[in-house]
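dumping this here before i forget
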Amino acid sequence: MSEPGIVDPTTSWIEVVALLSAAAGTALTGSPMGPAPHSLALGAHIVAADALELLPLEVDSALDDVIAPIGATLVELIRAAHLAAGRHPVESLPEGAGAVIDSLDALVTEARAVS
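structure:
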């Protein structure tokens, strides 16, 4: 049982996937996007897919419950996913999360260069 206001590791990981998926979706808005942001959005898509692979099938529907910050930029969404991933020790996240977090760290570094 979880305490009110405390987000459990699985819920945080679901948030990571949803935020990265929203970041990837920024490339689909139809707005002009240069090569660097487009590459960043593609990277977000790849990391989101890797993170999704670690979730049990029964929680897939919970992704729809996560609301990305309205008006958030590609870089802001990636940073928000990074913060969500850092809420818990990697040992409490799904097995294999360490490799995904390493990729997310690299994506955040790339995002800093783009912003």
